[in-house]
Design a protein that fits this description.
This protein is α+β, with helices and mostly antiparallel strands. The chain contains 13 helices and eleven strands.
């Protein structure tokens, strides 16, 4: 009887997604959810709408690969930093300038690694570096965007910038913290961020379709088989095309498609596998020699998923967000004080209830041919519908 009730309630998720598609809030979506209850694993999958409207119509499938946008921060960069901390190669309490000497310029010598992870560094949250590089291209008639030179120019501008507040004084979410963290990983690991993440995170977990998609001179064209699986994003005015199989974020694109704040692509099942392995490590179900144990060292995972002591109103752990009371995209039913997650601008999100072991992966391509500036209240609604179904008596 209860299973029939749960199924009926979960049908509301499809109806909510269909309405959002009909209202042009999203072209399509894949929602995966799971939660153990009374010895059973409750699961749900919704696949609705279209992955691409232009340049051709492509149906959304469970295997559709999404531009995860800022989910890159926890699923790539924070995971990489945690592994290097566990290796003893990075100390969270050390100044960033110990590993990246240029990052200590102009009064930034007291910015610690943990400040970057918790968005309390004092760096500006965002700057349109791509616009300055685009203007330089136009004036000089040379290709800069998407090249190693562009990456170095963006990092140099961050290193030479001044802080907007003292480290630890305020928590202001932004991309520049994680652009620097991506560079830190590369400097310490002595290999590109995408290669490190593939070798140390995605390959061990069996995430075969999770990757950064490099762009720029010298990069081979994206195989059509992969492009056809991607959800298209914005019809970009300055790039002059619909983005399909290339990163949406302009600064990540300028840096060649691989950056600490954005650039990761994956299907919903890979995001769910990442979350499931994290939960196994969190609850002590993985041996240190297992894939989950190697990727998520339990002692450090505890530190990284704990909300940081800091300025009033700070909601961040080391690399993850936590629900804002009464105003979270995770809705009303995730456990307060035991939930972590993150959002991506392209319409992606991942929320994990560490206590109930509930996971909701919601991937949409909301910036593709629709009103991307909408408040996107669909996220909270879907999470509420899923959790109310799983918790139904």
């Amino acid at each position: 009887m209860r299973h029939a009730l749960i199924r009926r309630k979960l049908a509301r998720v499809n109806r909510a997604l269909d309405k959002a598609i009909a209202d042009a809030e999203i072209p399509g979506a894949v929602v995966l959810a799971r939660m153990p209850r009374d010895g059973e694993l409750l699961e749900h999958c919704s696949v609705r709408g279209l992955a691409c409207l232009r340049p051709e119509r492509t149906a959304m499938t469970r295997e559709t690969i999404f531009d995860l946008a800022s989910l890159t921060k926890p699923l790539a960069t924070a995971a990489a930093v945690m592994l290097l901390v566990a290796d003893g190669a990075i100390d969270l309490e050390e100044p960033v300038a110990k590993y990246l000497p240029a990052a200590g310029e102009r009064g930034k010598d007291q910015v610690r690694v943990h400040h970057l992870l918790a968005h309390t560094s004092g760096l500006k949250p965002w700057r349109p570096f791509h616009e300055a590089l685009l203007e330089r291209e136009r004036k000089k008639g040379e290709r800069i965007l998407g090249t190693p030179l562009a990456r170095e120019m963006i990092l140099e501008r961050i290193y030479r910038s001044t802080l907007v507040h003292e480290p630890g004084e305020a928590a202001v979410y932004g991309d520049l913290d994680f652009i620097v963290l991506g560079a830190l990983v590369e400097a310490v690991a002595q290999q590109p961020l995408d290669e490190f993440c593939t070798q140390r995170v995605y390959a061990p977990l069996g995430l075969e379709d999770t990757r950064f998609l490099r762009i720029g001179d010298g990069q081979p064209p994206l195989p059509d088989a992969i492009r056809q699986r991607c959800a298209a994003t914005e019809n970009c005015p300055w790039r002059g095309r619909v983005l399909w199989g290339e990163v949406h974020d302009p600064n990540a694109w300028a840096m060649g498609g691989v950056a600490g704040h954005a650039g990761l692509f994956a299907p919903a099942d890979d995001v769910m596998r990442f979350a499931a392995a994290l939960l196994d490590a969190w609850h002590g179900r993985s041996e240190s020699s297992s894939a989950a144990g190697r990727v998520f060292p339990p002692d450090w995972l505890q530190r990284f998923l704990t909300r940081q002591d800091g300025p009033e109103g700070a909601m961040w752990t080391l690399g993850w967000d936590t629900p804002t009371p009464g105003a979270s995209s995770s809705g009303r039913h995730f456990t307060p004080g035991a939930t972590v997650g993150h959002l991506g601008f392209t319409g992606t999100s991942l929320w994990i209830d560490l206590e109930r072991e509930a996971v909701v992966v919601m991937l949409t391509n909301r910036v593709h041919q629709v009103a991307k500036r909408s408040p996107f209240k669909l996220r909270a609604l879907v999470h509420d519908l899923v959790m109310e179904s799983f918790l139904a008596e």
